[in-house]
Design brief:
Strand order of the largest sheet: 1-2
Largest sheet: 2 strands, antiparallel
Strand content: 5-15%
Shape: elongated
Number of strands: 2
Distance between the termini: 31 Å
Length: 175
């Protein structure tokens, strides 16, 4: 598995989300006893809390559970749908006529961009969820009053990455 992955991207890139998630889990476990009985669970457009709920294991750990499941799911999907198949031709969603006209190198380049898309999105999603978890804890503890600019930067990155790769893949498929 690792050998196949390293053909497309450095395996150490997967250490980034694993490290971030590990740190976030330890941080949250450490801060859980200090959290007040009510914590923010929803924010308005400006990052101000607009919904609060009782402190519970589910409310406190929900972001980390979602982040961990998302990271693992995207990693597995990337491997089994894009990296593992031997024939990149079955991965490309274009007409049979167009696919037949593409060279093997072109198909492989499109596969590589799809893999990069999944890896970049996965890492940025973990950053987004970990940042949101960190900020919820800081807001709960009264250390800040709203979401910071970092949350919006990560959110913007997560939203822009698919567009960037869509343009690259379109250029490869017609170029």
């Amino acid at each position: 598995m690792g050998e196949r992955i390293s053909k497309y991207y450095p395996l150490w890139l997967e250490l980034i989300p694993i490290l971030l998630l590990s740190l976030a889990w330890f941080y949250t476990i450490d801060k859980y006893p200090l959290l007040p009985d009510i914590i923010p669970t929803h924010f308005d457009f400006f990052g101000l809390p607009d919904a609060w709920h009782d402190k519970s294991m589910l409310n406190v750990y929900a972001m980390l559970i979602i982040a961990t499941v998302c990271w693992f799911s995207i990693f597995v999907l990337n491997y089994y749908l894009l990296i593992k198949p031997d024939d990149p031709q079955r991965l490309i969603n274009v007409s049979a006529k167009r696919r037949a006209a593409m060279s093997k190198d072109q198909l492989e380049a499109i596969r590589e961009q799809g893999i990069f898309l999944m890896v970049a999105t996965n890492i940025c999603l973990v950053f987004l969820f970990v940042e949101l978890n960190f900020e919820i804890i800081r807001i709960s503890l009264g250390l800040q009053s709203s979401l910071s600019i970092f949350f919006y930067l990560f959110l913007g990155t997560v939203l822009l990455i698919p567009g960037y790769f869509a343009v690259r893949i379109m250029r490869l498929s017609y170029g």
